[in-house]
Amino acid sequence: MRMVIVTGMSGAGKSSALKMLEDAGYFCVDNLPIQLIYKFVQLTVNGTEKFDKVALGVDIRSGQALEELDEVLEQMKKDGYHYEILFLDAKMEVLVKRYKETRRIHPLSGSGRVEQGIEDERDKLEFIKKRADVIIDTSQLLIRELKTEIDKIYIKNEKYNNFFITILSFGFKYGIPMDSDLVFDVRFLPNPFYDPVLKSQTGNDQPVRDYVMSSDMAGVFLDKLEDMITFLIPNYILEGKNQLVISIGCTGGKHRSVTLANELTARLEKLEYGLKVEHRDIEKDAKRTL
């Protein structure tokens, strides 16, 4: 039997992940009292009804009893009950934004600040995060992208690396993305904007891609950037980082940055980390002209 304990920060997507696992055929139970978890595991393994796949949701709603979970998990391990832990996480600013948008109250904030509740929760869940087999940072993920990751790990049984890279193209005239970890300026490359044929196209179109990449500087830049990133990632992982946002900017975020973001994504696919590309400002010039 495959057993997955789904846990993580409130607002990071735990309920969504459980629902996805349920849709995939897992028998799911959410917020079971900590004192009953061991008994539940015994029943699912040794009971008359056999289960192939089970997912168990555990979170901060367990209150003080959450402190007993570490002992329960240790006992399960000692008695030969195999389990995996999936931990859903997200950045502070993302969690705060989600709570404000939904107007929900954080379980630990009460009438106080949401930020304080999130900080307290992170401290209380640190012990289980250290035990986690898989950590997914949902800060940059859409629901369908989270589903793709869940499917890879728990349905297709593909190897998962707890590190996710987002390559983000943007236009400097619209501001640098606030969640950037690394920012690169490619405004030194020839600009397709001044070619009447290419102006209305984007870096997703082959003619623009060919124009930008015809510059020797583009290839050299990509070689050096790829080399630096492949050096940095293992060191980031050693420091406990599980997500990297690489932002590549040009003037309007439509031609050069889009091309370079796509090219870098293609080069990094061989690294076998979670990876996606986004183009933040690719449509903004078109909207302005309407």
Characterization of the model:
Keywords: ATP-binding, GTP-binding, Nucleotide-binding. It holds the Pfam family PapZ_C. This is RNase adapter RapZ. With 290 residues, the chain is of the alpha/beta class. The protein has 2 domains: 153 residues, P-loop containing nucleotide triphosphate hydrolases (Rossmann fold); 125 residues, no CATH class. The longest helix has 23 residues. It is elongated, with a radius of gyration of 23 Å.
In short:
The protein has 290 residues and is of the alpha/beta class.
How would you write the strand order of the largest sheet?
Answer: 2-3-1-4-5
Radius of gyration: 23 Å
Number of strands: 9
Count of structural domains: 2
CATH architecture verdict of the largest domain: 3-Layer(aba) Sandwich
Biggest β-sheet description: 5 strands, parallel
Helix content: 40-55%
Poorly predicted runs of 5 or more residues: none
Q: On the 0-100 scale, what is the average pLDDT?
A: 90
How many DSSP helices? 10
Q: What is the N-to-C order of secondary-structure elements (H for helix, E for strand)?
A: EHEHEHEHHEHEEHHEHEH
Distance between the termini: 57 Å
- Percentage of β-strand residues: 15-25%
State the CATH superfamily name of the largest domain: P-loop containing nucleotide triphosphate hydrolases
Helix/sheet category: alpha/beta
Shape: elongated
Protein name: RNase adapter RapZ
Pfam family, one: RapZ-like_N
GO molecular function: ATP binding; GTP binding
Domain RapZ-like N-terminal: 1-155
